[in-house]
Automatic annotation (TrEMBL):
Sorted UniProt keywords: Methyltransferase, S-adenosyl-L-methionine, Transferase
Protein's name in the database: Class I SAM-dependent methyltransferase
Classification via CDD domains: AdoMet_MTases (cd02440)
Methyltransferase type domain sequence ranges: 56-149
Cited InterPro entries: Methyltransf_11, SAM-dependent_MTases_sf
Organism: Streptomyces pimonensis
GO molecular function, one term: methyltransferase activity
Domain of life of the native organism: Bacteria
Any one biological process term the GO annotation gives: methylation
Presence of the UniProt keyword Chaperone in the record: no
Length: 206
């Protein structure tokens, strides 16, 4: 699911089925504030393919990024480990061109399907083997497809996350083009000012 350790804590022991009901109360989760929603919509418009395609949203949470992608004409498949999150995502996108599955983001239950973009927000940093996950996600792409990875480092006393330079190093063996967009200085996506590292990486592997 879309997660972050904004208080400097990790995600170990978190029951995301319990957390699901209040998950959208975070400004960048529920996107209820029009300015926050518009900020994420603009970024996804830039990061995702310009033409409608197939987008795989891994760790989709309650489906807010999936909804923005679907509104741009993309066909969305969302995957989350939490059944409660998936239920809320299905409700949020009811009647739209989207399917939500319960499963592991590192090994999504999508069979032989391939995608024009794999979107992963605030998930990679929680994984014990992020390099392996990136290689698997690369294999889920069609030729010319892209990885859209939104990550950061949260907290100051006990920071958690994955710095941009480490993520770009993990992507280097996949080849291709890697673009980094810094997001810390823009308050709009978060609904407030932030003083930690937040960024997005768009990678088009060879």
């Amino acid at each position: 699911m879309t997660t972050h350790g904004g208080d400097g804590s990790g995600t170990e022991g978190v029951d995301w089925d319990v957390e699901a009901a209040a998950f959208d109360e975070e400004p960048d989760h529920g996107l209820r504030d029009p300015q926050v929603r518009a900020a994420w919509a603009a970024r996804l418009r830039a990061w995702l393919p310009g033409r409608p395609g197939d987008v795989l949203d891994l760790g989709c949470g309650t489906g807010s990024p999936s909804l923005l992608a679907e509104e741009r004409g993309h066909r969305v498949t969302g995957v989350d480990r939490s059944p409660a999150m998936v239920t809320l995502a299905r409700r949020k996108l009811a009647g739209r061109d989207a399917v939500f599955l319960v499963g592991d983001a590192t090994a999504p239950p999508v069979g032989e399907e391939r995608y024009d973009a794999v979107l992963v927000r605030h998930v990679l940093w929680t994984l014990p083997e992020p390099g392996r996950a990136l290689r698997h996600w690369r294999d889920l792409l069609r030729p010319g497809g892209r990885l859209v990875l939104v990550e950061g480092v949260w907290g100051t006393a006990s920071p958690v996350g994955i710095p941009a330079d480490r993520l770009t190093a993990l992507l280097a063996p996949l080849g291709g083009r890697v673009d980094v967009e810094r997001l810390s200085e823009d308050t709009a996506p978060w609904g407030r000012g932030v003083d930690d590292e937040r960024y997005a990486v768009v990678a088009v592997p060879d």
